[in-house]
Amino acid sequence: MEQSAEELNKIEKKDLFTSGHRACGGCGQALAARLVADASGENTIACVATGCLEVFSSPYPDPSWRIPFLHSLFENAAAVASGVEAAYKALNKGPVNIIAQGGDGSTADIGFQCISGMLERGHNVLYVCYDNEAYMNTGVQRSSFTPFGARTSTTPMGNKTRKKNMPLLAADHGIPYVATATVDDFRDLQRKVKTALSIEGPKYIHILAPCPLGWGHHGELTVKICRLAKDTGIFPIYEIIHGKVTNVRKIPVKVPVEEYLKLQGRFKHLFKKGEPTPEVAEIQEIANQNIERFNL
Amino acid sequence: MEKLPLGLVIDLNKVVPYKTGSWRTLMPVNIMQIPPCTHACPAGNDIRGFLRVLAEKEDYKQAWHVLARANPLPATCGRVCPHPCEAGCNRRDFDSSVAINCSERRVGDYGLEHNLEHKKLVSGRKEKIAVVGSGPAGLSCAFHLAKRGFKVKIFEANGEPGGMMRYGIPPYRLPNYILKQEIDSILRLGIDLECNVKVGVNIPLDQLTREYNAVFLGIGAQKGLAIDLPGKDAENVYTGVDFLKQVNSGKWMEIGKDVVVIGGGNTAMDCARVAKRLGANVSVVYRRTRMEMPAITAEIDEAMEERIMFRYHTNPVKLVTDEGRVVGILSVQMELKEPDASGRARPVPISGSEAFIPADTVIMATGQAVDYDGIDVQTVDNQWMYANEFLMTSIDGVFAGGDAVAGLETVSLGIGQGSRAASAIEDYIEGNVESSLAQPPVVYSRDLNTYYYNKQKQFNKEAVSIHTRLKNFREIYPSFDLKDIIEESKRCFSCGLCFHCGNCYMYCPDNAVKISPSTGGYEFDLDFCKGCGLCAKECPCHYIQLTLEK
Amino acid sequence: MLKQIEGSRAVAECVAMCRPNVISAYPITPQTHIVEDLAMIVGQGKLDAEFINVESEFAAASVVLGASAAGARAYSATSSQGLLLMCEVIYCIAGMRLPIVLTCANRAISAPLSIWNDQQDSMALRDAGWIQLHAEDNQEAADLHIQAFKIAEQTSLPVMVCMDGFILTHAYEPVDIPEPKQVDHFLPPFTPKNIVDPRSPKGIGLFADPRFYLETRYILHRALEKSEATIKAVSADFAKTFGRNSGGFIKTYKLEAADLVIISMGSVVGTIKELIDRMEEEGKKVGLVQICSYRPFPRHEIYNVLKDKMNIVVLEKSVSLGRGGILASDVRWSFPRAEKKDRNISSFIAGLGGRNIPMDDLRYMVEKVEKEPVELEFLGLKKELISEKDL
Which one has a higher pLDDT value, C295 or C336? Predict the structure, then answer.
């Protein structure tokens, strides 16, 4: 349903994902989950994959969700959401916002099959991916979203592969709406969630969610790190509406990637005695490619 | 314990959340700090207070009341104060300072336009206090004491109240009607005023100390000092103070075609610009350079705009007279050597560089001193009045403040000292020991998170054209637009005090920042706060800080 | 109405009459005809349901999980590899107590690849917490589906209806397909207990730390044990409504006078009954215990009907590699240790990978155990294919 610009830009705080969860202090994913739930409102069903989000938010007997949630397995959030959507259609119930949520693995690795199926079949479901760039819940192991050069417990010498571009992969399924967002700009994130929910069909939103524990920074820097990720070009912000890239966030002042890398313990090994190693140049190259490709 | 439900399915409306506050080692606290503007203000104005009222509520009336709490002369200060607040403003390190001075003026003017009245805090105390002098220090002391319910009487030596504000500052800087309205508003708190009474001459000081519970001396430094040059007693030679007093009393001065002003302070600038408006060619003679001139930069700039000539490195040697009247000065060029006792470069005459400067009038604005006539108090090095840290003089129960104590200072310093003296007088009368609570810390720009602000140009006050200015003594800056000042007030960062930006509320991953039902402000839910510090990091004004958990 | 109909088709028509709201399955031989038939029924508008074509069995199970949790009556079907692929979800569905019905067209498991029938697949998931019912013939297969929805919804336990792949699914037999009115009368609309619904927010799928998990398993185990009453009641109810005996816990054949009892399940029971009849003519007294409900395991029933029988042979189409017969272990466990006395319980593995079980092999089995008990034997093993060192 169409929403006015005023409704889309209104900041929502309803605590539909509330206190008492066991996330680490300063967790980017917890913040994102709340922003998403509030933007969607009470008429929402959350289908959550196993991962940090599920583990810290749904222990018996005190889960922190206040909207109905359904958690099944690690890799099937998208398929479960498809089932919920089918049920609501078959039973002529609704309308209802169905949001499937998962992290790196549940979206792009072990869960890739299910999300690909869901997007291809055209279910009216919003999939939100919380990208913290590793399998955080099981102990910071490498995922397909782990960026080049990052240290994880399974790539202790630094990751050698480049980040999989899930938003573009999702868009190439022919879905009507894809967006990327970060937790520092909550207005933008909530607007994108609301925009997505107003469109019929499968939608995909990719949110960068810094992990203080896994990335090696203080919890208080979560917001600042998101800003640097945007302003270095490492994480481009854009929407893809019916296959066309639009609403690209231009970078006001370009920041060299070192500013971003230096704040995180997982990139510490890239600076020997304060001097950057050649990998830093490669990371800068990746950022430059993003800047060029999306005209940031 | 509850029995396990079917399939472990749980009703979300019945959940008792787990209190994650027990995880904390650091805790966020709200600490109100002093913004650098207030810290720099000699009167201690709540600048952040009145600017935020304008910015958030667009309410001039409430802003005036906030401002008038500490400063009863906002329209005056907004015209004459050299605004050290702006020099301290944290926004200076971001783009440019907030135009506090202009904002103060507009709020002060609003108060006068709408006849806003000061409020008494307490009524009907029986003690009486005598205030000597109705300059800024005396008026401020009387104001604060009257608000606290004391009976106050001001004794003013001149015909009208205001001190140097009335008789020193020319009307194109401070129109007389503005000053009068503000003074009348102060007096309406029930303060008695008797003019043309010089304490120490017309009434002995010890009569006041007998009849009143306390006395405040705000007698200023109104005696002009001339340099001891031959010819200084001629009738067309004036001290700066005398010259201005005569002009401000409404006397028309015949000053001729060429006027030479000697001196580099504010008085010298005022004299020069007044003389210019009286139709003369004016030059200012100063033995060092512009950099060493103690006058306010803006005054010097405006004087130069008004085509007053500045002769730097120039020192008068002798006043040349003809038939008892000065016809010019003999001056010599100086060069600057190593600094002297005042910290400024020491000027040394260049031999052979003597020159004659014709003058129909010579004004020596070369220093001022306290007129101690009949006032027998201890002084410091025979110059300024001695007063201890409670602003009490060597006489018990006699307090003092302003130029007489601090040297040649500003209106706002006088106001600040008057207010401090009022508190000290109240303590003295009640036998209280002055409290020595620590002051909150000052917040500097390095503590702020300025990411959330956009650069915005400072409000620029525009003067009327030079041509128009010199035709009369009217104010050179016409009234400011109410909307412009509100826009400017929104540039205030609210350093050290929450301005409800909502960052902490939105950013807490644990929903541990709540809106207080009683105050409407933000408070921390310590049952759930994990002490991650995101709120403190993203608070633009440093109001939230992390401390160790108890 | 009596129809000469393919087993898959019979099942599809009966499932359709149960009015599932969401059907999702991934094709795998030999379940394909069931799913295709249902797709056609839905496509022709004869059934108002959402038919979701998914990308794998894992997704199919997840879709029906989501649908059931949202309040829909949900159905899926699979076999062999597909069942193993959805193993995670199978356990999850049981733990969540969702009343889903799944058809398992029993088929052998890779490697090596085999598309033919045995029961290793459903056996691999016997511990997951599902009710497992085995059909003897196409009539029972069709009937069991109708009963399954009712059992599932009354017990809040998922039900797996097992029917032998190809043997039943692809065979044409006369099957009495009930009238839709009868099915509607027998099976009321689904009134779900716990669903995700914004009007009454619930959390489904929480995690349980060590303080709580043990109890959830106990509760599930007891629920399965207690479902015995429902399984029997629904079967009796079915008999009343449709006029034939179908399903239930166990069935017996010519047991009272038997000297030797064969225990088995699935379609091979038909062959066994034929053998028993022939042997009766020859003067041999052999009886049959047919297991309908494999989970919950009918150990009390087995004990009760067999406590006076001293010679028992278990014939099954499954094996626990490295241990022996699975059904045989279950049966052996049904008799209390103290009481075993001279009872012989022999274990025969047959029919793996679709190997035919001819009458002669069964006869050989009976004659062998009449002489001596057999610990474990693979019936019809072709020793000529096995090298010396592998024996």
Answer: C295
